[in-house]
Amino acid sequence: MTPPLGWLGIVRLGLVQASLGAVVVLTSSTLNRVMVVELGFAAAAAGALVAIYHAVQILRPRFGYGSDVTGRRTPWIIGGMAVLTASGVLAAVATAWMAVDPFAGMALAAVAYFLIGVGGGASGTALLALTAARVAPERRPAAAAILWLMMIMGFVVTAASAGTMLDPYSHTRLIAVVAVVAVTAFIVAVLAVQGLEKGRTVAAEVEHARESSFREALRQIWAEPDARRFTIFVFVAMLAYSAQDLILEPFAGLAFAMTPGETTRLASLQYTGVLFGMITVAVLGSRGLAPRGWMRRWTVAGCVASSVALAGLVVAAWWGPGWPIRTNVFVLGFTNGVFAVAAIGSMMTLAGSGMAGREGVRLGLWGAAQAIASALGGFLGTVMADIARLLLASPATAYGTVFALEAILFLVAARIAFAVTGPKEAPPVDINARGGLAAPTAGG
């Protein structure tokens, strides 16, 4: 049996996640901006392309099943990255083509964003399955935090460097910059994943996975109570989590008369809280400061705390100026970070429970639920805010109503998470005699 990954191996998995994020941020942010600002397209047109990317994530269970029956995740990670990076460049070419032929360019972009969804879904699902298989239970919270943080790092580094290289802007320069980022991301991902599955014995699991068709495998997973409950939990929790994204800044502007610069800094404060929440959970888990079964408890606690923080925004809508809105938003970010890392850690633990040889299908199912909820959450949050503004006299109260609904969703998610029993977790002891982190094990 191959020993679990050490910290270096976990960081290598994080590099793959950062590479994924580097390509995705260009297609979801930079290309969108070019379409709307430089080319004058409606924001809805650019948003529709991103919606195609999200819609394709429903195929994640099929990608997970494919990696189950082949018995290796690495080819799926590399193959998915190849499709993702190539289609990212294709999306840049399509964006440049829109300046000459808008309809043909948009049609090519639709194909490119579909392929971006395919590549990202295949690679991301296989990466999570590999992480669940190769990371020891006591290190999974830290692994979840590292993967998430390195994805954000991929966003930040790519956005900063690409932003510098794009000036002065031209369509040719856009294609060149995206191509450089894509090639770099692919090379980093390929080098990072090499050897991580070396020596792993999976013959029995593969044989078992091949006994059923994809449809039968999906039916078997849905029949597992924990897998079914956790799927519903992921959907409800991510619906609540993402519904706040597009309405928090408008709320702060309307209720607290904040300028665009001030609301942007408020959003930055929220993400800072998210990072602190993630790091806190990762440190507690990796240093043995939490009891057995703690990931489920922290998932529940994170959801309940997020609900309380959202309730604070409901009070803020009524209170108005004078309410400690910045503190409230930081706490909301912190509790969201706690919930996110604990949920991902629970996901990795649950992936190996139930019927053997179905880890990829389980993670694919949960990934699809997350993607669909994320796409719906942002849209429904804005729609509910608009409807509330039509029915209520005060815009601030309208936004407060939406925050209240999100708080209720988080409580519902906490109740569902509490019902997920899961396998017994190993005690999270991972410290050496001097109280520091244990040295990486072989394979990392």
Tell me about this structure.
The chain is mainly alpha-helical. The chain has two domains: 8-211, Growth Hormone, Chain: A; 213-429, Up-down Bundle (Growth Hormone, Chain: A), CATH 1.20.1250.20. The chain has 16 helices and no strands. It is globular, with a radius of gyration of 22 Å. The model is unreliable at 424-444 (pLDDT under 50).
- The helix-strand sequence is HHHHHHHHHHHHHHHH
Strand content: under 5%
Count of DSSP H/I helices: 16
SS content category: mainly alpha
Per CATH, the architecture of the largest domain is: Up-down Bundle
What separation lies between the terminal Cα atoms? 15 Å
**In the CATH hierarchy, what is the superfamily of the largest domain?**
MFS general substrate transporter like domains
Mean pLDDT: 81
Radius of gyration: 22 Å
Low-confidence stretches: 424-444
Number of extended strands:
0
In short:
The chain has 444 residues and is mainly α.
What distinguishing features does this structure have?
444 residues, mainly alpha, Growth Hormone, Chain: A
What is the topological layout?
Elements: H1 7-38, H2 43-56, H3 60-70, H4 74-98, H5 102-134, H6 140-165, H7 171-193, H8 203-209, H9 214-223, H10 225-243, H11 248-256, H12 260-286, H13 294-319, H14 325-351, H15 359-391, H16 395-419
